[in-house]
Every structure is written in C-alpha cells, then in structure tokens.
Amino acid sequence: WSRSSERSSGARSVAVPPIRFEDRLFVATTDGRLFALALDSGKKLWSRRVREGIESALLAPSSTPDSPGARLVLGLATGEVRALDPIEGETLWKVNLRSPIRGFQSDGRRIFVLSKDGTVHCISAEDGSARWKHEGVGHDPPAPLLVGSSVIAAARADSVFAWEAESGARI
Q1: How far apart are CA 61 and CA 68, in angstroms?
Q2: From the CB of residue 73, how many other CB atoms can be counted at a distance below 10 Å?
Q3: Are strands 80-84 and 91-96 parallel, antiparallel or unpaired?
C-alpha cells in the first residue's frame, strides 16, 4: 500500500523514523502532525496535530507487570515530552523539560531523556514525574543508550557518562 498525508502541500516530510506497535504504524511529519495507520492497509486510524515540531519519538513498551501500558512518547522542539495512548491517540501526560529533546530510551517503567542543553532526565513512564537528572553532558549531545541497568550518554567533548538507571548514581 501507499499513503500520502491529507492536504499534503509537498512541503511536509517525515520527521522521525516510523514506529510500529502491534497492528499500527505511527508517522510524524515535520509540520507537527502524527498519524496512526493500519499496518496491513495504510488506512488512517487517527491523527493528532502537535503545534510544536516533533524532534523524536519512541514507543515505551509495557515491559514488566508493574509498568504502565505502552506509551507513544514524543519529544518536541519546545522541550515538552508528551505521552500518548497508542490505541486512541489521547494525551496521557506531558512535561516540559525546557530544552528541545534530542532523544530518549525507555525500559518500560522509566524514560531517559537527553535534551539539547546537555541534561539527562529520568522520568516516570506512568505519569512523567521526575526521578532524577544530570546536567553538563555537553551541548547538543546524541541520544542516550540504555544498556541493562545503566544509562550511557556521550558528550561532544569526547566524554562518556554512565549512571545507574534506577537511582541516577554515577557508575
């Protein structure tokens, strides 16, 4: 199948790589639209307009019995992190970290966010509440890496940082 987003003016393009969840595919465009498409047909299931630019996207799965259900998480140019229900597209929570979002990783219970100002944030996947944060990773660093129970971030100044995912303690 093939699909063009409605009212496509030719100026719109895909902002981040598509994300798959069960029988759905999520596509975010550079003009701030998010589409949920049926994976087998391309049929539009829902769409949402996000005024702010979508810088990154992630599916935070439900990985443990005590974790919340899956969340579709968007990182916006304004520094907002927004979690959506991947089935209905409704906003579950949002939090503003005050710097554009560079990228993130999730273990299902927590979301590890790296903002362009070089701050690593650990927030709850359930409600977006802050768990811990570390500043000074460097200006505009790449997305963090989750390895087992560790969060790793590389700085532009040839430095690598590692923290314990649960507590934020430096390893």
Answers
A1: 8
A2: 26
A3: antiparallel
Which amino acid belongs to residue 2? S
pLDDT tens track, the chain, 171 positions: 887 755 555 557 888 899 999 999 999 988 888 999 999 999 999 999 987 788 889 998 876 566 567 999 999 989 999 999 999 999 999 999 999 998 899 988 899 999 988 899 999 999 999 999 999 887 767 788 899 999 998 876 678 899 999 999 999
Complete edge-to-edge strand list for the sheet that includes strand 54-60: 54-60, 71-76, 80-84, 91-96
Closest CA to 96 of 80, 72, 117: 80
Compute the residue count for the chain: 171
Residue carrying structure tokens 């000074």: 136
CA dist 85 and 70 (Å) reads 7
Q: Locate 52 and state its tokens.
A: 């702010």
Could you tell me the pTM of the whole model?
Answer: 0.87
CA distances from 110 to 36, 55, 66, 119, 134 (A): 24, 19, 12, 16, 15
Using an 8 Å Cβ cutoff, are 143 and 105 in contact? yes
Class of residue 4 by CB neighbours under 10 A (exposed 0-12, middle 13-18, buried 19+): exposed
- Tracing tokens 């579709």 back to the chain, one arrives at 72
